[in-house]
Amino acid sequence: MATRHHTKDKGDLAVAKVQADLIERGAAVLLPFTEHAPFDLVAYIDESFYRVQVKFRTAKQGSVIVRFSTSWADRHGTHIRPMPRHEVDAVAIYCPETAQCYYLDPKEYGTSVTDEKTAA
Q1: What is the pLDDT of residue 83?
Q2: Pairing verdict, β 41-45 and 48-56
Q3: Shortest CA distance to 116 belongs to which of 75, 80, 63, 79?
């Protein structure tokens, strides 16, 4: 079966990669019963819960750019709004070029972050 490159498929792949990475790091991973939560999963590490928003980002010109926003499409078009940072504890980025997951605290950045090291 050929891999589709639909946005939803990329997001699902990123969530699966982050789940596997967190489990390898010793975390328990909990999943919400809805796609409408402001986070994609919860990681339970060292007796603490962390709400994690997952992003799939490809490297472009040696950099991975992460914008702290959320988007969706419906019959009224495409909508973009700032990520509700108070509702997430971490942003996990899966980059297919490096096949790695990276973790950021969105409260430490402005509206976006560019990381040149991640795409090396």
Answers
A1: 83
A2: antiparallel
A3: 63
Contact in structure between 69 and 80 (CB atoms under 8 Å): yes
Mean pLDDT of the chain: 88
pLDDT tens per residue across span 1-26: 555 557 788 989 999 999 999 999 99
Contacts of 43 (CB under 8 A, 6+ apart): 22, 27, 28, 29, 30, 49, 50, 52, 90
Model-level pTM? 0.84
Q: Cα separation of 1 and 79, whole Å?
A: 31
Cβ atoms within 10 Å, residue 71: 10
Distance from first CA to last CA of the chain, Å, rounded?
Answer: 30
